[in-house]
Amino acid sequence: MAATDQTYRNQKTLDIVFAVSCILMLLGTLWMFWQDYDRQFKHIQRQFRDVEEALSEYQMLAALPSQEQVAEARNKVTAAKKEYEAAHNKLLSRERELMAKHDLADFAYRSLKADFDSKTSLYNIAVEHLGKAEEPKRQKELQEEAEKLYKEMSELQDRLIKAQDELDQIKQQINKEVTQPLEGPQQQFNRAEEELKKLTANFDRYAKATVQKRWKWDDIFRSLPILDAFESPTKIKQVWLPELTIDYGGFKDVPRFDRCISCHLGIDRANFDHASLKRLTLSPELARKELEKAEARKKELEGKEGSEEQIKRMEGQIAQLKEEVKRSEGMQKRLDIAREILEARKAAGENLGFDPDKLPTKVNWLKLDKGQIAMYAAHPRLDLFVDANSPHPMEKFGCTICHQGQGSATDFVNAAHTPADAGQEEEWHKEYGWAHNHFWDFPMLSSRFTESSCLKCHHEVTDLIRYGSKTEAPKLLRGYELVREYGCFGCHEIAGIKSGREVGPDLRLEPQPALAYLTPAEQDKAKADPLNPPGTYRKVGPSLRRLAEKTNQDWVRKWIYAPRSFRPDTKMPHFYGLSNNSPDVLHQAAPEQERFPDTEIAGIAYYLLAESKGNLEGKDTTRETLKGVIAKRQQQLVKGPLAEREWKELQDASRRLGELALIAVPAQADEINRLIVLLKQAQEVLQELHKKEANQKDGGLSPGEQEERKQAAQDVETRLKELLAVGQITPLAKRISDEEDKAVELPKPPADAEREKHVSNGRRLFTEKGCLACHSHEGTTKPGLGVAAAPGEANFAPNLSRLAAKIAPEIADEKGMEEAKRRWIVQWLLNPTVYHPRTRMPITHLTPAEAGDVAEWLLSQKVTDWDDKGPNEPTKEDLVALARVYLAKAPGFTRADVEAVLPATGGDLPGIAKERLENLPPDADERKLEGPVTEDKLKWYIGRKAINRLGCFGCHDVPGFETAKPIGTALNDWGKKDPERLAFEDADIFVRTHYHIVPLRNDPNDPKKPAADWHAKDNKPPYEKIYADAVQEHRREGFLHQKLMEPRSFDFDRKLAWEDRLRMPQFRFARTKKRDGESEEAYQARQEFEEAEAREAVMTFILGLVAEPMPLKYLNQPNPDRLAEIKGHQVLDKFNCAGCHQVRPGVYEFKTTPEGLKVLEDSYNTNRSSLKKDHFFPGHSAWEGVAQTAADRLRVFGTQPKVNDTDFERPMLVVRSTDALRFAGTDGVVRNLPAASNVPINLDDLIARADPWGGTFVDLMIQYRKPTEPDADKVRSVAPPPLIREGERVQPNWLYGFLLNPPPIRPTTWMMLRMPKFNMSPEDARALVNYFSSVSRLTNPGAGVRSEYVNVPEREEIYWRTRTAEYVQRLKEQKKYEERVQEMEPIWQDALRRRIAEAEASLPAAEEAVKQAKDADAKKQKQADLDVLKERIKFWKSDRGKEQLRKEWEETGAYATDAYKLLTDRNLCLQCHNVGDVVIASPQGPNLALTAERLRPEWVKEWIANPDRLFGYKPAMPQNFPNDTLQYQDRFVGKTIDQVIAVRDILMDLSRVAAMPGNRSRTALAAGGSK
Amino acid sequence: MQLWSIPTLALALAGAFVLTAADAVQAEGWGTVKGQVVWYGNEVPKRAPINVTKDQEACEKNGKLLEDKLVVNPKNKGVRWCLVYLMDVSGFNKDIPIHPKLQTVPSKTVELDQPCCQFEPHFLAMREGQTLIVKNSATIAHNVNLVGGVRGPNVNQIVPPGGKFQVEDIKARNIPIMVKCDIHPWMSGRIAVLKHPYFAITDEDGHFEIKDAPAGAFRLVIWHEESGWVAGDDKPSRNGKKITIQAGATTDLGKISLKPAE
């Protein structure tokens, strides 16, 4: 184309295009500006200003003083001012006059002072020059000048002093004539002004805030577009957390920015509570409307059955609403008054600091919806979070570290909020267009799971319990307890350690055999690895090693088939009849597998029983295999050295055999460990010597070595035999043994005539001896057999209601069977560790006869209500079919092999050929299939394979699976597992087709109850919509929820081979029990509801396992005492100590109101009679309360919480305090309400309540004994004692020994039961001892528990000398000294007589010895001895003898001798206690000889002084030495507290004191007198 | 000051009421109430002998000890040791008019003794303002454990032979104080404390009589240690039974049957 000057494009078009694009760009830019300007948080912050204004306004009006009061105060101010002015006026002329004088004098003084100063400096200069001048002439001149100046200066000084005097005088005059007379009026004026200020201070403050918070013109201006970039009133607020980084997946360690506070603006302001915010919206119209609605709802409810409770609640609501209506109606008027007051004050010229005209003229009712209120509200637990003084201040922790979500987002949707339920979800969707944010991996935890986050830093979990009983994260703690109880860690690893750092709770199984059974060296080795310390959790199920002695195959099959049908509240989960293996599912999906479940169950049952029997005979498969391997290799070894592989095989097999022995018979651990070492040594000797021989070219071994080898060859054989013998279980049929492992005779069955008596006694023992602290039994819930009802609900251990149907070993003849049943139960009761070495069941200390009676009763409780349907008996074809499935998977087996071994066509089963067998490893399961194959062999094979697949050994000790590894997915960081990696499959279809989907689970009006539509429909159980959605949307919690609910439903609609089906069993956590009079439907609904809650608790725990390593300073690192408390709590839980003992008091926090304080004061006054008798111990928590942490509330620790509606105007919660409560009464006087007081708390004032921890069994016994013993304290005195203050009470070494092997303390004749002996390790015992000491230090620093060890000064010579000196002094002062000496006279004489008689009796022998002496030297020696003896007799006979005794008494004896009189007074301690050998008719308390080793001296003193204050209940022990009465002066001279201390002192050193001269006879006297 | 200014809240309110009401509320005359508490069944329970496990010599010096909680006269089925008192219709804490001659508390002290390992009297009733003296005239020691609950006193003190102690300022309450000796576990007694003089303990025939009571509608409350509340409008309750006292006459309530709670 030719060149032209025409442009390529038409210029005009281009212009247009340019113009259009300019405009578009401008629009785009504007749009961009607008978008940036119109951000959500800005609107929110703008609205928040209104909320702040309204709230200030509300508070201003709430603080509105009455007009009259203000007027009065104002008048007072004016009057005072007037008075002042009047007085001032009177003095005005005089004041002026004096002031004028003052000014003149002041002027004169000042000018003189100036002159003087100038002269002084001139003089100084002159003197300085004089010093420097060298010429004499100049010196003279200067000297003169200086002298002149000095003279002038002195003159000036005199005048100055005079002027000053004058001035002072005038000042004094002013003071006297003007200032002083005005002082009174001035003060009055000040006071009046203060009064006024007090009256109006709050009001003024809020009024000012109201004005300030109003949105004003400058706010509008500053928030205009573009301008808002500078000093906008709305801006993003954020917390920057450089250490709490976020892992964005790959971009590690990105600092965290939490901008949540851009919208949650009131989060840290205590006064922004929900109720206050709600009130801001309640205009009179709205309040009236709500009231009408509430009234209508109440009417609706009336007449409906079972709605009384709801009506009551409605009534409360209505009353409240009525109040609100009244309040809101009065608001406008109050505002008008407020304005009036302020205007008047402004008019009066007061400087208010703001302009009252700017106050709103009309009450502005805000329009806030539920969501907005939630957004602006303060954090509900400012005491724990957000607040700067709380343990988790916002500045340090931010928000998202706990809540998750996208902290950097500034709008609702992007922040990844998560709704709590379907209702909220829908609301949000409508309101904010909210949808789940798939692009953010860690959306906010819904409020259901907020507690999960606590696990990030609180790895011990029990550190979330405060004050021993207050659970701060109840749901998480429940989840933790359930995980512990149900043993999730048996299959799933929960390790808590990630690359050497602690990242979560550690719940791992203990090694097998348990550490305690290993040698100390092995134990140390196991503990040496800090990155992988041994686990500590025992398997949660019983050992199955001796199953054949307990039950039979038939029962085992029925049990495995459906454990909950036998025991509805068992923790054993269901493995069969589930969504992937129930008969109907299989029938449809895989008909060829339809009979597999029954076949498999039969196989498992067969395997367990067969192996258990084998075990009892020493012939179980593992043992046989190991024995075979060892024998074979040892035979080889005797002949020559083993090859490397063979040697390893021998070593491995020997080790495993040893471990097997330790697992089976740990009671023989020492012997087994010894033999293991000896066997290993012998094997090594052989191997070494063989090797040496082979290496030596000539000669061979020395004769000695040959001998050694010969010996070793013998040794390996005998040691193996011995090891097998020691590791061999002794069957019960041969021997039952007691707690010390001594053989015991099985009590004979009672004769028929006697039977009922024994059965009844058995039931009584079962009830009273503590079984019900852990177990429950239907049979005890109703009275019968002459025993009262004891409806225990403990579920720490199995419910034993149907035990009689379970204890049934396989024994042919019926009589033998009966005996075998009793045998098992008696052995279990006498020493359960024989059957199950790792059981937590303690040794009960029942006698064999008592155990026999308990067995008699348990077996007499026939089971009639069990639908004992079990699986079908498999046919041979079934067995073959299933065995083929497993065989096909066996290593090295092809289809053809399977066909050859187990032909599908039926007929004879050739089995595995001999040659093939040889090539299989020695422990291959397939070895069992050696031909000809029987049905039993097939069952064994199937059973073993099934157990392996299902992981039964995660909970049970299963013979043959000693080394098996857990089968489940590790849960270490499941809480942040990528949902992409979860196989949801078609679970959502399953959920939709199998459940009745319900929007809400909890009743919105009462969240503790199920919602109205929460029930099964068309046989479909209820399912919460939020979880159905979560499954559909493939969210973590959806998967977890469904996995726990129906674990195998993810197989739904899948064609799967048998062995590929999901294996997780189905647990049920809630253990709901049907209530009396509850309908079946209501029960079902409640069951589903409680199950859902429990499941959610487990989920809360698992979702918290995120394994995020936190910076060290964020981890909860308690101080040593607190850590001991936390760890001890876990051990207390492990052995269910709280089942019997009350371990910690309850915690009650309440607001202090004038009424409440008044009632407390009354309580203080009712205590006066006991206070007078009390000895006060300052600093001790029982007498002196701690300062409360918050000014507006009190915290009380106490037991026996009870609502009392008889002694007060309105019902009060009354607790018996365990710690003194310090409070300031309405009169401002600070009082100490000591422990053991009844503290009444107004129910409305209660802020937090946590009831005492523990003592369930005692409470049950109180109920049980009630018909015969209505006095609960008497029952408490024979039941397990409370352990409150245990740390300050007992000596740690004593407690340690006691825990490991508890002897009886209080008389067994008096007590209902005895402390059992727990299957506890020394570590556990130590943890408990530390727990109690530490709790004492934490809760009562004044008790003097300072270290882990106890110092008992009362056992030291110097202590006694000091005390005695004091006492003798007192005797002399009280003129009792001579009296005492006279009293002692006969005792001394008696002692002298005895000494002389003893000496004289030995005289002849000494004389004889002199005669018999062989040589001179010996004679001399003997003669000297004789002389000494004679000298001694002479001394005792002379006056000096008596004098010596008197001296001894005066120096070390007088105090103890007199104190001993108190102890042995028949009317004091000896009323209830034995003292050493002095025994009384029916003792109630411990023998006092135990005191010295058992109790801490300080506690003994406080206890004797006033027992009531130190116990969890009112003890029977009386006050022997009340403070207000002087008694027993004839026995011990001193004040009552001296008597207390004296008794304590001798108790702490009793054996020595009792042996003192005078005391021996007194002991005899007391012993004689008390009989 | 403390002593007077801080009685329990309830009492303070009631007290305030009295101060103003004492003049305002006047009884319309005075009358007597009497009646008899009898065992409900035909079979009269026997007093079981007490198993004295210690100090037999001192305890049984006057004969064997018999159960003293439930004492029913076999002759007329009268139940001894029942506390009977009047109460205002609106509740226990309201005061009722007191006859002028009964206004002052007659004797400053009441005594409780334990000569033979049982409390004597077994059931003591006293007026607020009286002082309780606990004696021990036996030759052995007893401890006296007063279980006074929220209204006190809660004292547990050993009393040597011949010893005694006193408790002042015991507040009125509707359920009597329990007193026990833990050394001799069978020993138990009761102490009722009331604000007015209109109370009685039934005698061995189950009779009670309350004299100079204000006329008008009141509630008669009866309580027995083992059975709890005895009288009631339809069933026994702590509010007792509604009665009307005739002025200048004796209101005989006849037989009131006692049936132990199950």
Give an overview in words.
The complex is a heterodimer of chains A (1571) and B (262). Chain A is built from 54 helices and 21 strands. In chain A, strands 19-16-15-14-20 form a five-stranded antiparallel beta sheet. Chain A has a two-stranded antiparallel ribbon with strand order 1-2. A two-stranded parallel ribbon of chain A has the order 3-4. The termini of chain A are far apart. The longest helix of chain A has 78 residues. Chain A is mainly alpha-helical and 1571 residues long. Chain B has 262 residues and is mainly beta. Chain B is built from three helices and 16 strands. In chain B, strands 2, 11, 13, 14 and 15 form a five-stranded antiparallel beta sheet that branches. In chain B, strands 4-10-9-6-7 form a five-stranded mixed beta sheet, with no helix packed on it. A three-stranded mixed beta sheet of chain B has the order 12-1-16, with no helix packed on it. The longest helix of chain B is centred in the first third of the chain and has 16 residues. Chain B is globular. Chain B starts with a helix and ends with a strand.
